[in-house]
Amino acid sequence: MKKIFAKDFLWGTATSAHQVEGNNINSDVWAEEYSEGSPYKEKSGDAVAHYRLYREDIKLMASLGLKVYRFSIEWARIEPEEGCYSKSEIEHYRDVLNCCINNRIIPMVTMHHFTSPRWLMRIGGWSNPNTADKFARYCEVVFKELGELIPYALTMNEANLPIMLHELFVNFNFIPPVGVEAKSWTAPGWRESAAKACGADIENYFTFHMASDEASIKIIKDAHLKAKRAIKKINPNTKVGLSLALPDVQFVKGGEEKAKEAWQKYFKQYLDAIKKDDFFGIQNYTREVYGEDGQIPLGKDIEVTGAGYEFYPEGLKGAIRKVGKDLSIPIIVTENGIATNNDERRIEFIKRAVKGVEACIEEGINVKGYIYWSTFDNYEWTFGYSMNFGVIGVNRKTQERIVKESARVLGKISKNNGLDEVN
């Protein structure tokens, strides 16, 4: 039987530091969690204690047959105050990387996954053009220490998410991929409290999630390019990319222009920054369908996930196909997943999504990996711990790991390098 996936195809799972490590006290999001009137339903606290339990966790991933672990290095830990770099935190992440390598897990590192150091808010955050240089400097410090251990790096996670947040909140009150509620976009009161906690004022308080205007998008793209340059200068062998959150944008008759506008905002406006990268990270959870009046709300008969999305695993292949029309660089699925308490639906989602990737490869699209979100049931931002994306459950009272059948299925797909023989 013909093998669709290359021998070095990347099968794995993903996390982000703030959502699993716990006690990310020097970050802007931690300040938001504790702000007066905060929209966060729960505080992250110890999260799932991955900062302490990473060795056991990585060993568990390896035992399941997973080949890749995508995780983030936390800027707020590495540089808790501007220009002050924590040697102990660098050594922590060195051990995480070595633990991956020793367990034959390929590490894929995200340098920024939504959270920023509190001190960045004092100088305007992601509205300050100088932030691009400060981010690149942080990447340079990390790669001088750890670069030889990092074969794949994403500079930033879902650089376009602020646009999606703004569009979905303002127009539809839909839930975007990072679980943040609509009221948090338009209610400045709690942000004043968060700004104060960061030692900033409301005029300067500008987090990554707010970067949806033309000026801040330019800063985001500049930060990516400068960080990539810094990384490649130190370790040319590291493959560097950027990830974008991309629903499969579809349309019904009359919605062609609205769909085109959405794809331009979500993807095409970033082409100038990513077209020369080593790979592109695509992150897909569902589809968006447009009519002549804009995005069409979900009907009552549509199956929705715990995150409020349409259950539509075929969205991944649709998004990959669209990306493939404009990009010639390799594509890695750096996130794809479902929030559900029904693990049978998760297994169905994974199998259908992987089948879609298989179809794209057969069509000649250069897809190099599939990384599921998420490794664990973890902290989902303003929704706290109420959404379960993980293939591994966690008893947060004891921090015991509970392997779901979906983890075994994904591990079997990884070991078989495809869907063959996976029941």
TrEMBL record:
Its EC number is 3.2.1.21. The gene is bglA_2. The keyword Hydrolase applies. GO terms for cellular component: cytosol. Belongs to the glycosyl hydrolase 1 family. It holds the Pfam family Glyco_hydro_1. It comes from Clostridium felsineum. InterPro entries: GH, Glyco_hydro_1, Glyco_hydro_1_AS. Keywords: Glycosidase, Hydrolase. This is beta-glucosidase.
